[in-house]
Each structure stands twice: as structure tokens, then as C-alpha cells.
Amino acid sequence: MQTRRQTLKHSAAVAGLLATAGLLPQQALAFNKGAFEAKSLNDALKALGSGAPTESKDVTLTAPDIAENGAVVPLAVASSLPNLKHLVLLVEKNPNALVAVFNVTPEVEPNFATRSKMGQSSDVYAVAITADGKAHYAKKEVKVTLGGCGG
After folding, report:
1. Is the N end or the C end of the chain the one with fewer CB atoms within 10 Å?
2. Average pLDDT of 109-124?
3. Measured distance CA(94)–CA(85) in Å, rounded
4. Within a 10 A sphere around the Cβ of 115, how many other Cβ atoms?
5. Do 143 and 150 form a contact (C-beta atoms < 8 A)?
6. Which DSSP string do the residues of 55-117 spell out, in sequence order?
7. Which helix or strand (DSSP H or E) is residue 66 part of?
8. What would the pLDDT profile of 4-50 be if each residue is shown by its tens digit?
9. pLDDT recorded at residue 135
């Protein structure tokens, strides 16, 4: 019987072989390094092909008011906007602002949840980017009592 670690190791090896053979879809290999290395919100959005965001009631951000442990802060984003391309989560005061990018297609319900590290109290942004490059956001301040980035 294989352990979970062995199974993951073998799965990664098979995925690597499929990727080098060109058998995986290109979208599975997509990674926007510039966006994930961006230090500010605007730089991350620019790297994703969007301009300055405008506040919108059609974007929903779910986050705790107080995160007792900054190492595992639950965040969720949803939107009712038409023609969505991406749903994005950003933490303003993190060393790298971008937390997650979710690619949205018509077949996908635009409702995602994840967990993030937060080193300190900060504003968290949920941004919906439409196919025409317009960005709409919701914002919430999350207070962190125990920092997750070495604090």
C-alpha cells in the first residue's frame, strides 16, 4: 500500500511527463509569474491585463473580521457580473499582494474559496476582471492577531 506522500510524488512525475510530451492542455500550464511577484495591487492587476478597479456590489468577498491565526485565513470570492475572465484575491500588506487567480469560463460557477497567509492586519481585495479588461472590486479589512508570515 502506498503512502499519501508516495502517491503525490508519483502523480507529480506523471504530470511532468505528460507536460513534456505536450499532452496536457496549455491552460493547465498557465502561470503568470509577473502577477504573483507584484508588490502592489495595481501592479498585480496590470500584469493580469486589467486597469484600475472600481468598487462594485456585484463582487462578494467573504473573510473574517478577525483572523486569530494569520497562517490560515479563509477567503472566498464570488461575482454575478457577466463575461467574467478572472476572479482574483489580493492582500494589500503581504510581501506579494496576489493570493490567487481563478480563471472563469461560462461553464464554471464564479464562486471560489481558499486560505491565505497574512503577516499583519490588512485590507483584502476580491477583484472580478471581465473579458473587456475592466476590474470591479470588493474590499474588507481583516485584523490578524498572530502573524502567519513569520510574525
Report:
1. N
2. 93
3. 24
4. 12
5. no
6. E-TTEEEE--SEES-TTSEEEEEEE--SSEEEEEEEETTSSS-EEEEEE--TTS-SEEEEEE-
7. strand 66-67
8. 888 878 887 777 766 666 655 555 445 678 888 888 888 988 988 88
9. 94
Residue appearing with cell numbers 477567503 = 75
List beta partners, residue 55.
137
Phi, psi of 37 (to 5 degrees): -95, -5
pLDDT tens for residues 52-104?
899 999 999 999 999 988 899 999 999 999 999 999 999 999 998 999 999 99
Q: Any idea of the CA torsion for 140, 121, 63, 88, to the nearest 10 degrees?
A: 70
User: Residue 53 and residue 112: Cα distance in Å, rounded?
Assistant: 20
Burial class (CB in 10 A: 0-12, 13-18, 19+), 104: buried
Whole-number Cα distances in Å, 148 to 48, 119, 138: 26, 5, 23
